[in-house]
What does this fold into?
Amino acid sequence: MPASLGDHRTRQAPFTTTTPTHEAHSPVCFLQVALFLVLSGTSEQSSWSEWQVLQPEGPILVAEGDTLLLRCTVVGSCADDMIKWVKESSQDQQEVYNFKRGFFPGVTSAVQRTREPLDCDYSIYIHSVTKEHSGTYHCVRFAVSSEDLDTKLGEGTAVTVQGAGDPKPDLWIIQPQDLVEVTTGDTALLNCTVLGDGPPGPIRWFRGTGLSREAIYNFAGLSHPNVTAVRTSDRDFSILLPDVSTKDAGTYYCVKFQRKSNRQYLSGQGSKLRVKAKSTSPTEINEPAVQASPTGE
It folds into this structure.
């Protein structure tokens, strides 16, 4: 069985890399939430029917006092002034973060705005969570005029805040790296630690979310031939991606499945892989000219 929540936070420290630091915890629950969210409608500047909003699958369990990472990627266009986060609970609905306006204590954008035309990240951190942060979160396009309504489709991402006195969860999936940055040709290490028991079933890695997510590695089946497992212990489900290229960029999820139903049981919070092109050194640029020199100098 997993250690107490206090022990769990202590366990995370050895796995933390030099990438942005926080203590985001992993999903745990039997519920399945929306796999694929699509924004529809039109505006004066862009066709909303071409937008896709991707949120991670499965609810998230976070310990009280820790930091929650909520991932959201908009595919098709970037518009900071038209995206916000809202939280629904049994009592009410409230705005959590607005990329256009307002001040939201304890909530920050996970990444700086990059203006990437086909893959824009609108993930957020909620710091020092309390029981009041439990609920379902939606990354939505808000109304651009008084005649429009906020576009909020699907079930969103359910979040449960675990208090110190609550029953212990049966399984934790820990992905300590929010962001992994490598250069083309390097090997990327994606960490995943699984604590606890849970139902019988394999651990699998995927890139992306929704119906179009790509299977990367299966610890109990076929996998990409160039991806290898680390397995330093029976709790280690980390993988290595050798000789990466820019095509390997994306968000990778470590996921637990139930063998009986072959359905997803719970997922890690995701690690974003960013691949930078390798710059050419001055020596490499001048080398052909030196070799072609008639004097040999």
In short: The mean pLDDT is 74. The chain is about 5% helix and 35% strand. The radius of gyration is 21 Å. The longest helix spans residues 282-292.
